[in-house]
Amino acid sequence: MSVEDSPAACEEQERLHPTRSLDDTVHQRVRLGILTIAREADRVEFSFLKKQLALTDGNLSRHLKVLEESDLITMEKGYAGRRPRTWIALTREGAQALDAELRALRALVLRLETPRPASGSPDA
With 0-12 CB in 10 A as exposed, 13-18 as middle and 19+ as buried, what is 108? Predict the structure, then answer.
């Protein structure tokens, strides 16, 4: 059992605010959009992402590069007929990162939706 696996470490992790679990690479609005769209399909084409997220070629390319360098996506270049295409697919690490992000967001929502004791009670 490592220090991180100890009961005290687990208890400390539970007390931390859910936003501490958000990943800055994944949580950025455009990158979160890319990852969620990629999760919905085996692979997604560059122009589809560009249209869905209302981005320029350069802006989308930059976000894709960040995700690719973090091993969260793969990019495959090829042709559809004579037209060059770029397809994006989520990696296993990307799927895990997206799942972790969604768990953190759910924890945050749950925290806000759970009734809290009145400020004068001993549990406050």
Answer: middle
Asked if residues 46 and 96 have their Cβ atoms less than 8 Å apart, the reply is no
Does residue 86 contact residue 96 with C-beta atoms inside 8 Å?
A: no
**pLDDT tens, position by position, 18-68:** 888 888 999 899 999 999 999 999 899 999 999 999 999 999 999 999 999
Residues 94-114, mean pLDDT to the nearest whole number: 92
- Give the integer Cα–Cα distance in Å for 108 and 112: 6
**Rounded CA separation 62/57 (Å):** 9
Tokens 């995700």 label which residue? 67
Tell me the C-alpha distance between 57 and 51, whole Å: 10
3-state secondary structure string, 16-63? CCHHHHCCHHHHCHHHHHHHHHHHCCCCEEHHHHHHHHCCCHHHHHHH
